[in-house]
Amino acid sequence: MALVIENLGKSYDELVIFKDFDLEITEGRITCLLGPSGCGKTTLLNIIGGLLKADSGRFLGFENKVLSYVFQEPRLMNWKTVRENVEFVLKGRYPGPERREIVDRYLEKVELTDFKDFYPKNLSGGMKHRTALARAFVYQSDILIMDEPFKGQDLKIKLSLIDSLLKLREKDQRTIIFVTHDIEEAVFLGDEIIVMSSTPAKILKKFSNDMRRNERELIDIRNYHIVKEIYMMITDRKTE
Amino acid sequence: MKNFTTKNSPGPVKNGIVMALSLTIIILIWKLIAMGVNSEIILPSPEAVFRDLLKIGRSPEFLPAVGATVARAVFAFLLAAFLGVVTGIITGFSKLADLLVRPVLVIIMSTPIISLILLALIWFKSGNVPVFATFLMTFPIITVNVNEGVKNIDKGLLEMAKVYKVKKWSILSEIYFPSIASYLTAAVSTAVGLGWKVVVTAEVLSQPQFAIGTNLQNSKIYLETASVLAWTLIAVSLSFIFELFIRTLEKRLIRWR
Predict the structure, then answer these.
(1) From CA A47, how far away is CA A147, in angstroms rounded?
(2) Which domain holds residue B49?
(3) B22, part of any domain
(4) Which among A43, A72, A74, B202 is placed 20 to 30 Å from B47, CA to CA?
(5) Beta partners for residue A15, in sequence order
(6) pTM of this prediction?
(7) Helix runs in chain A, H state only
(8) Is B220 in contact with B228 (CB distance < 8 Å)?
C-alpha cells in the first residue's frame, strides 16, 4: 500500500514551493526526505500533518490516517513533568491509571523511567528529545512525521536518539516520514531515500535501502556510493 | 529523585538576621531624629508609636476596622482578577475586542487615583468608594498582563496539540492557563501592592464607619501623630501579609520554574 500525493501546489506570494509535485510513500517503511535548505521539506510535512493548507493537489491513502509528529524542537510544556507531557496526548482516550501505565511502558523504552517526575528545565537536550519521541510513539498513529528531530545534536546524543527511535519502532512498524539534512543519517535510517531539488521542488531521485536494519551502521562504507551520489546531487556537482 | 538547589543562596536564618538588622537600624535612626525634633506631634518616638499600637490592638474598633478594610481590598482584588482574566483572554484572542477595550484601559490607567476617588465619592456610598477605586486601579493591570500572556503563548505547543488532536478544553486548561499563570501572578503581585494603598487612601477620603483609613483621618484631625503612624504600621503589616500570601500562591502555581 502506498500513500500518494499528486499535483501538489503551494506558493507563498511569488515564491512557488511546489508545482505539480508528486510523491509516493510506501506504508510501513521509513522514508527519508533529503534536500537543500528551503526546498520545502518542512512545508511538505506541515501539509501532510494538517498544519498548512495546500493550494492544490490530491492526497490518496491519507484518509482516516492518524498522525503523530516529532518536531525539530521537543515542544514540551515546561509546567508538566516528563510523564505528564507524554500523557497529554492520550487525554480522553484512556482512563487515568491505564494511561499512566501505557506512558510508563514507553518511558522505559526511552530510558526515562528515573526521570519521569522531572520538569523539562531539569532535563538535558537529549532527554527532552527522547520525551518527544515517547510522546509520538505512545500516540497510536499510522504515520509518524519527523522534521529533522536530531538536528544540532552531537554525535553521541544523536546515536542514542536513533537507538531510542529504533527501539520504539521494533514492535511498531508504523510509516515514518523523516526529513533530514544529514545524508548519512538518511541512508542509515531510510528504507527509502527521496532526494528533492530546490524550489519549485522536484524529486531528483529515489533510492531504496534493502539492507537489514540490524546490519546497518551510521557510518558505513557499503553505502558510500549512495552517500556520494546524493551529495553530488544536493550540491549540484557533476558525477565523474 | 534528585534535588536541585543553588549553592550560593543564603539560608533563611541568615536572610532573617539581615532583615532584622535593617529594621533595627531604621528604628534607631527614627529614635535619634525623634529625640532631636523633640515634639510628639511632629515625630513621635518609636516607643510612643508602639504604645499606641498596643492600645489600638486592644481597642474595640481595631478588628471591625481591619476586617472591613481587608474585606474591601479582597473583594476588589477578586473582582478585578476575575474580570481582568476574562477580559484579558477575550482581548488576547480577538483583535476587535482588543481595539475596543484598549483605549478604555489607557484612560483608566492615566487618570489620577484621586480623581477616581472624588468621582466615586459623588457616585457611591462611602463604604463602596474604596472598592470601586481599587477595582479600577487593579483591573487594567491584570487585563493587560493576561492579554500579553495569551498573545505570547508558544505557537509550537498549540501546533503540537493540534497534530495530536487534543481536545479544546485540554488545550485551554493545560496550555493556555499555565502559560498565562506566570503573567497573572506578576500582575497580581503589582496590583496587590498598588491596590492596598488605594483602598486606604479612598477610605481616608470617603470615611466609612469601619476602616483603617477612617481611623487614620481621625487620628490626624486630633493631631495624634503616634496613632497615625500606628495605623500606618498596621496597614503596612497587612500589605506585607498579603504579599506573602501571593508569593506562596505563586510558588505553588508555578513550581515548575
Answers:
(1) 12
(2) 45-253
(3) no
(4) B202
(5) A12
(6) 0.77
(7) 41-48, 82-87, 96-109, 125-138, 155-169, 183-189, 224-234
(8) yes
| Domain-located, residue B169 | yes
Q: Within 10 Å of residue A210's Cβ, how many Cβ atoms?
A: 6
* Enclosing domain of residue A174: 2-234
Residue A71, in any domain of the structure:
yes
ipTM value of the model?
0.85
B-chain CB neighbours of A71 within 8 Å are 156, 159-160
Peptide bond into A120 cis (omega under 30): no
A65 CB within 8 Å of a chain B CB: no
pLDDT in tens, chain B (257 residues): 444 444 455 677 888 899 899 999 999 999 999 999 888 889 899 999 999 999 999 999 899 999 999 999 999 999 999 999 999 999 999 999 999 999 999 999 999 989 989 999 999 988 899 999 999 999 999 999 999 999 999 999 999 999 999 998 889 889 998 889 888 888 988 898 888 899 999 999 999 999 999 999 999 998 899 999 999 999 999 999 988 888 888 887 777 76
Task: Please indicate, yes or no, if residue B207 is contained in any of the structural domains.
Answer: yes
Is B163's CB within 8 Å of A50's CB?
yes
Q: Which residue has the cell 482578577?
A: B81
Element of type H or E holding B14: helix B12-37
* CA–CA separation, B85 and B79 (whole Å): 10
B247 lies in a domain? yes
Task: Inform me whether the C-beta atom of residue A142 falls under 8 Å from chain B C-beta atoms.
Answer: no
Cell matching residue A137: 510513539
Is residue A200 in some structural domain?
yes
Residue B174 carries which side chain, given as an amino acid letter?
Answer: E
Query: Do A182 and A20 touch, CB atoms closer than 8 A?
Result: no
Q: Which residue in this structure is represented by grid cell 512545508?
A: A43
Domain count, chain A: 1
Residue of B164, B169, B171, B255 to mutate when probing chain A, most A C-beta within 10 A: B164
Q: Which three cell numbers stand for residue B53?
A: 499600637
Q: Measured between alpha carbons, how far is A85 from A133 in angstroms, rounded to an integer?
A: 11
